[in-house]
Specification:
This protein is mainly alpha-helical. The protein has two domains: about 220 residues, Hypothetical protein, domain 2 (Endonuclease III, domain 1, Orthogonal Bundle); about 55 residues, Orthogonal Bundle (Arc Repressor Mutant, subunit A), CATH 1.10.10. It has a three-stranded antiparallel β-sheet, with helices on one face. Helix 8 crosses helix 11. The radius of gyration is 21 Å and the shape is globular. The two termini are about 35 Å apart.
């Protein structure tokens, strides 16, 4: 895996502190475990879909779309063979639509180069489109039940709350040794589920510890943003298959320069091709 494994980190906690922390986390988990559909399977494809969907998207929204997506595209082969407009159409409502492109490309890579099996090497996973260090580490834990160092928003919240009291500007490299030291190497899958559930609960009970993270960024309002316009353009393309570029400003109520800039970005990202004056969904 990228970086040091849980067994290769410097000692930041005593064995007693580690055991006490684990006991507290598991005690909470036994009572408050969230029953999420992607936790009730060990299927690599289903877990991959959930992990990509959960990037920058709240669990509640993913719960609405995940069952439909899995029903429509139940495995790597089906997703890889599906026309991209169908994939994007099923993705609508989740936002950050580039993830649909990434997931479609990953499915084709797994089908064509890995005999339909998700590789269990973190470096290989990180070479896939849209898969960074955090998602690759999560896949190792949740698909293969392999020890890894997972730092995502809920886990970050837990460690800042318990081990960085009163500190601000906490960086992930400072957190990683604590994540490594406390990882339950016998069952990292359940351990990280437990941490995530505790982190989700903490957000509702106390001032968000993640605001003390050096990586914390408050998301800009969605209404009127380029993200909203991108979504509307893609919605039109999914519905109609193509759109005349000159029609977008009046359809969306924005000026021509802004429409052209957003359309140009979508083209570079691989969503559509130009045919004369038309933008045609790939």
């Amino acid at each position: 895996m990228a970086g040091a494994s849980p067994g290769e980190q410097e000692e930041v906690l005593s064995s007693h502190e580690v055991m006490e922390f684990r006991e507290n986390v598991y005690r909470f988990y036994r009572v408050h475990r969230r029953d999420l559909p992607w936790r009730n399977t060990k299927d690599a494809y289903s877990i991959l879909v959930s992990e990509v969907m959960l990037q920058q998207t709240q669990v509640e929204r993913v719960l609405e779309r995940y069952p439909r997506f899995i029903a429509r595209f139940p495995d790597f082969s089906t997703l890889a063979g599906a026309p991209f407009p169908e994939v994007l159409g099923e993705w609508q409502g989740l936002g950050y639509n580039r993830r649909a492109i990434f997931l479609h490309r990953i499915a084709r890579l797994v089908r064509d180069e890995y005999s339909g099996c998700l590789p269990d090497d973190e470096g290989t996973l990180m070479s896939f489109p849209g898969i960074g260090e955090a998602t690759a580490a999560s896949l190792l834990a949740f698909v293969f039940n392999r020890p890894s160092i997972v730092v995502e928003t809920n886990i970050r919240r837990v460690f800042i709350h318990f081990f960085f009291e009163g500190q601000s500007g906490v960086k992930d490299p400072e957190i990683r040794p604590f994540v490594a030291a406390t990882c339950d190497r016998e069952n990292p899958r359940e351990w990280y589920y437990a941490l995530m559930d505790l982190g989700s609960a903490l957000k509702k009970q106390i001032p968000n510890p993640n605001r003390r993270s050096a990586h914390y960024r408050k998301q800009a309002p969605f209404e009127g943003s380029d993200r909203m316009v991108r979504g509307k353009i893609l919605g039109i393309l999914v519905r109609d298959g193509a759109v005349r570029e000159s029609d977008l400003p009046w359809m969306l109520g924005i000026d021509r320069q802004r429409a052209e800039a957003i359309l140009s970005t979508l083209e570079k990202e691989g969503f559509f091709k130009r045919e004369g004056e038309l933008a045609v969904l790939l």
